[in-house]
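Would you kindly consider the sequence and fold I have copied below?
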Amino acid sequence: MSEYYKANRGDGWNYGGKNWKLSRSKIDLFKECPRCFYIDNKLGVKRVPGFPFSINSAVDYLLKQEFDSYRTKNEQHPLQKEYGIDARPMSHKELDEWRRNFGGIRYLHEPTGLLVTGAIDDLWINGKDEYIVVDYKATAKDEAVKALDKEWQDGYKRQMEVYQWLLRQNGLKVSDIGYFVYCTGKMDRQAFDKRIDFDVNLIEHKGDDSWVEKTLFEIKKCLESDVIPKSGEHCDWCAYWNARKVLEN
């Protein structure tokens, strides 16, 4: 069995357990496939994950280091200047915790009793003293990513909107505008030569977090039910298992 996949978790990490929290990724799993979400969080059988991409983690780490160097000087990053954005990296006493995996921003949604969490990549501030949510992305393609116009990228947008919602629930004034720092590894080089060059683009997203509250009530109803919900319309995992059942019968 893969070291990255342990199918069953302890009861304390399932819904109702002392360690269970509603993370941003769990919210997105619910939006993608309520059935997978229920089996994961209520029954404790995790969906098989994709393998981690270490290059993405390296880019994420280096970007944080780079933006932090300008944060300590209270100066704009060259990318912000290049795009003419009225923003600079923002210092905040909670920023390190808000960035920490398995930590993050937290808010107890009292109507449902759900503790919602999410770990951000970065936080900027504009001239109106509005906080700006920033997310780092890395990939490798023939052409640089300059827009989030594919259906599979909708999850990225929901991710940012959950972060915006969480910050607002924590009393911060948050801009509707957020940014993705999107790094695309160039594949047009003649040789590797011990390096990968990246195109770095700043992609603006105007968030709308109005769907979050409604979704929390839907998630609560799902988790309190004894009936496993239907699959998401485009869930590859459920499609695979349904095909197996047909073949095995």
Q: What stands out?
A: The beta strands are 22-23, 87-89, 105-109, 114-118, 122-126, 131-141, 177-186, 198-206.
